[in-house]
Specification:
7 strands; 57% helix; mainly alpha; elongated; two-stranded antiparallel ribbon
Amino acid sequence: MLAMDQGVVEEWLSEFKTLPDSAVSTYAASLKDKGALVPALYKVIRENYSDLLEPVCHQLFEFYRSGEPQLQRFTLQFLPELLWSLLSVSAARDPHTSGCIEALLLGIYNLEIVDKDGQSKVLSFTVPSLSKPSVYHEPSAIGSMALTEGALANHGLSRVVYSGPHLQRETFTAQNRFEVLTFLLLCYNAALSYMTSTSLQSLCQLSSRVCICGYPRQQMRRYKGISTRLTVTSEFLVQLITGIHYALCNGEVELGSKALDDVLYRAQLELFPEALLVGNAIKSSLHGAALKSNTKEGARSIQVEITPTSSRISRNAVTSLSIRGHRWKRHESQEVSIDNEAALGGMAIPEISVTGVSGERMPNGDSMRPRPDGRAQSDGETLCGASEVSLDPRGHDSGTRSQEVRRQKSVRRMVENEGSGAASTGRSQY
């Protein structure tokens, strides 16, 4: 350890002891500005024979016991490195060098299993229902779900899982070691959003080392650490996978992917169904989702299908009112074109398309309606019978053409009014 790092740690140890209680919050907010402190503390933890290890562990416990959330999160960021130091020392069968680390971890565990009044806490977790959408899934993507009587009865119910109460521990044994470590990882995962990239990298390295030590994959990875196989539990691996999933989505893609493969490798060897289920589900979701980020430090996102809102549906919906409005706009454009041609002395008069009348549409825009004599009669014939319009303007002057245009428009308005009245009568009868 360099003398400069040692000086930074010693200054950190001395300044907190003389700090009054009223300045704890200000001091906790200023810790993030000390860039050289966190790397120096990592070096102290990794050196099991360092003289500063015991006072560092004692001060980290004082941070956690103070109850200040920022100081507690400052201590939790070193939890993966502390866990690896404990497990590696236990595998080497040299417990005398890990006494202060054991005391720190047991102290955090005993503080977390009780509430402010000293009573044992019972943690509750709500299991989401697959029939309701969430940020992770869409019911429509799963497929059709049978609406049986049992499914309808359980539709509005939510399943709650409880954890606890947990027993207080005074020392680590082979029986309770991973019970305590699993609960500590649960507390660490609850504060994952506050962890730094260095802490997430340490978590991924912890996962890989614990799962491959003593197995053939250790030689493939060329890891020269301990070669003793470490005993793990399925619950411990599930908590590791939870932290790895967050690291994968927040910049640590390479280390996170390697750690996830190593955890699945160990779960297959141990035949742990819970770890295999959670790990393979995350791995499958990552294959179909795109992780996007501009920088490595930036938070990444997973593309998921979001249920459209009601405003989005109503904006794109096709109703009878919207169709009717589209028709009126088309007629208005035709009227404008007729007036323009009349004003410019145009020669041609456009054909009239009658809407709102039921019947079969003809190619020229007329509608076929049944006649009393049995054969079809078009709206064009009706219009011609009501008013004869000459399409040959050669024998008329400009005044006659204007009069014909006005008569044409009045006849068309009369037919439209009849069509709209018929449609309104049909809707009221229905």
